[in-house]
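In this supplementary section we document a worked example of the pipeline. Step one takes a protein sequence of length 140 as its only input; no multiple sequence alignment statistics are reported here. Step two produces a three-dimensional model, which step three serialises into structure tokens for compact storage. The input and output of this example are shown verbatim.
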Amino acid sequence: MAIKRLDHINFITNNMQSTIEFYTQIIGLIHGDKLVGAASGMEYFYLPNQSIAILHVGDAHITRNSSRFRQIAKIENSAPHTGVIDHFCLQFEMEDYEIMEKKLIENKVTYEKYEHSNMLLNQIWVIDPNNIRVEMNFCN
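The serialised model returned by step three reads:
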């Protein structure tokens, strides 16, 4: 089992317009399309000529109250929010999905999983020892 790449960083902002301007005009990312099944109040940024959104930014005034955000971010016995950095995501091959789940069970790590058939994506969410959410995406 091997990590393929860092998939994305997700953080929350209190000033979406300034954030969009900074990451597009200063950093050079492309402010792009919403993702399938995206939470409301989320904006996505891409590297030029790439199809993977590497930066996901949630509006602190909208996203925290979204039922979709509460669903994907809530893990039993975790703090309600990890700060401005909400989570990071690692991508794995789909074949590693069951291997990871078995490893988590063997090590008594609390996790949640989501299977998104419309995107051919399975996710496992865990909380690290520092109370930071880690999203693991399993796809081909």
